[in-house]
Amino acid sequence: MTSEMVAAVPTPPGAGIFSTSGTSAGVATAPGELGIPRQDGPPPVSHAADPRHFLGLEGLTRPTLLTLLADAAREREWLKHGEPNRRDLAGVTVVLAFIEDSTRTRTSFEIAAQRLGANTVVFASGASSLNKGETLLDTVRLFEAMGAALVVVRHPSSGAPAWLARQLESIGVLNAGDGMHEHPTQGLLDLLTLQDAWQGRFEGRRLAIVGDISHSRVARSAIAGLTTLGCRVTVCGPGTLVPADVEELGCEVSDSLEDALAGADGVMALRLQRERMETGLLPAISEYARLWGLTPERVDLLAPEGVVLHPGPVNRGVEMAHEVADGPRSRILTQVANGVAVRCAVLRRCADAIRRPHGFTAALAAAAASTSTSASTSGAAGGREGSR
Ligand code: CP
């Protein structure tokens, strides 16, 4: 995915939140904005009110989060046994529309959807008509018209999935990471990993998050989920990469990495985006590694059972030393494994919501009724993908 291609995705007119100023390659976070451009117009779709969509962890209740974690844990048990694919999502088409690079998220969504029996389509944005000026909204409307039930969207602009969800009639939108806003399935897999490491208890625990807080959708989802579940979060990083008003998210701030790590039950190192050097937010990678990189000595400041997380991809020797990434406290590959289970749970949640009477089940029933009427009169047969 080149920056030229990102720039080639037209910005929908009037979509204030869907602005290229919020791209992950953007500039410093404006104070008070936490990296999210202010929005004019109607409020975002509430994912809590409309479970067809999965747009963020912010606003999800504690019971909803715990239910999703329990569902994901059950999916993980099933996945472990290598059983044949299920049919939960049989007849459901899931389009994976990644308008920004991804390895873990895209692959695990695809595996999860296939294990549940869905038809999966990987939308190759680089070879698509986006490059001829077609908008993302028109593109997703095509998927909808083709009968897709769910679209998984990664986009460099904060708010893009929520904006799409507001425009579309029937398709469910799942956020696979939007600009500097949220990465909710990453947040859920982080919660699942910590729930296991912490024997199921979030209250009384503390996680340190280290690095580029300003531009991190991973941090934002983790803070939203963890604080809802009663865990304290301490953030720290270079002053240019920690928003002035970050406490408004419900976390604490430390100027010292050592203080943040001391006695914490875990640490999450964030990926350092190298483009920050170009925007002058960091003087040098070597200085970042010296001041903020996780070394074995620093990690030893954690509580005895404290664990190390990283969303990936890891810049070894920058955010953490090899010995930490591959050490006994590391849960990085556990996070990746949990990603498939979490995405199974989320896909099922959205697909189940779409099947409810106000969703496509009703549309299908109406279509079936009209088909049977016309079949009885003309002998024609019809139907639509997604029928079960
Ligand atoms: N953690 C994460 O989002 O990784 P990918 O960019 O590889 O999907």
What does the model show?
This protein is 38% helix and 11% strand. It is of the alpha/beta class and 388 residues long. The chain folds into 2 domains: 3-184, Rossmann fold (3-Layer(aba) Sandwich), CATH 3.40.50.1370; 185-336, Rossmann fold. The chain has a 5-stranded parallel β-sheet with strand order 7-6-5-8-9. Helix 7 links the parallel strand 5 and strand 6. The chain is globular and about 55 Å long. Phosphoric acid mono(formamide)ester binds at residues 102-105, 177, 183, 186, 311-313.
What's the number of extended β-strand segments? Answer: 9
β content, as a range? 5-15%
**Biggest sheet layout:** 5 strands, parallel
**What ligands can be seen in this structure?**
phosphoric acid mono(formamide)ester
* Ends apart, CA distance between termini: 37 Å
Rounded to the nearest angstrom, the radius of gyration is: 21 Å
- The number of helices is 14
Overall domain count: 2
Strand order of the largest sheet: 7-6-5-8-9
Helix- and strand-based class? alpha/beta
Percent helix range: 25-40%
